[in-house]
């Protein structure tokens, strides 16, 4: 009986899942700086064309990440082969998506820069990758690239961490290119846990140069390249009760839920907690026995 052949991936063929942040609140604030949304798209389109030119078998899938929804906006396997057709198809789908996302959020008012639905786009990317895994024994090497600028949404902590661990289990690296002013703790953890690259460009005018030199190479070629490494990773978690980032808290021993304050019951699994020992007797009041001499 012949043994079952495991699934093999081609070394130099890549499946690149690109997650584009279309948060209008972020881009309206970033429009006053050196990078506008139109310039950002020109850099991204040039980068996607360069990835497809590196190998004719490479595949690129773009997922738009909005405030209220996320959706597939481009797939090189279904789009035209000409570069101008790729750009026109991508831009048209992006316009339709932005209008749809705006209509869904008309009733909700957002103060300041709201967070984008990063957990949803990560889940959609992983679902697409799993479908590719099951398509046949040979498949390209998948990886995820997050082009993100919005601040982290603490309410998405559980969903994002589940997506990160799912990507780690599937051996799918998550690369992160942060466009905002502040670092993202979620994306730092995602790149660190999955073995991806985390980068915050210093000069956004040269975004295409950053993308082409750091994120265009396939996973096999990365073994021979000196890619940038993050200085530090923020491993702080968000509590399940108030969705705040905390340094110290309480953890349920059954389901590992995190809380910033002591509760009687776990809101996730319903486990009953004991009383917090705040008035423990001090050791100075206890009698100590000394050995006789």
TrEMBL record:
InterPro entries (UniProt xref): TFIIH_Tfb4/GTF2H3, vWFA_dom_sf
Tell me yes or no: is DNA repair among this UniProt entry's keywords: yes
The terms under GO molecular function for this entry are:
zinc ion binding
Compartment annotation: Nucleus
Q: What is its main location?
A: nucleus
Q: Which domain of life is it from?
A: Eukaryota
**A Pfam family this protein belongs to?**
Tfb4
Instruction: Enumerate the Gene Ontology biological process terms.
Output: nucleotide-excision repair; regulation of DNA-templated transcription
Q: Which UniProt keywords apply?
A: DNA damage, DNA repair, Metal-binding, Nucleus, Transcription, Transcription regulation, Zinc, Zinc-finger
The answer to keyword Nucleus applying to this record is: yes
GO CC list:
transcription factor TFIIH core complex; transcription factor TFIIH holo complex
Q: What does this protein do?
A: Component of the general transcription and DNA repair factor IIH (TFIIH) core complex, which is involved in general and transcription-coupled nucleotide excision repair (NER) of damaged DNA and, when complexed to CAK, in RNA transcription by RNA polymerase II. In NER, TFIIH acts by opening DNA around the lesion to allow the excision of the damaged oligonucleotide and its replacement by a new DNA fragment. In transcription, TFIIH has an essential role in transcription initiation.
Sorted alphabetically, which PANTHER family does this protein's record hold? Answer: GENERAL TRANSCRIPTION FACTOR IIH SUBUNIT 3, TRANSCRIPTION INITIATION FACTOR IIH TFIIH , POLYPEPTIDE 3-RELATED
Provide the family line: Belongs to the TFB4 family.
Please describe the quaternary structure of this protein: Component of the 7-subunit TFIIH core complex composed of XPB, XPD, TFB1/GTF2H1, GTF2H2/P44, TFB4/GTF2H3, TFB2/GTF2H4 and TFB5/GTF2H5, which is active in NER. The core complex associates with the 3-subunit CDK-activating kinase (CAK) module composed of CYCH1/cyclin H1, CDKD and MAT1/At4g30820 to form the 10-subunit holoenzyme (holo-TFIIH) active in transcription.
The protein here is known as: General transcription and DNA repair factor IIH subunit TFB4
Q: Which organism is it from?
A: Rhododendron griersonianum
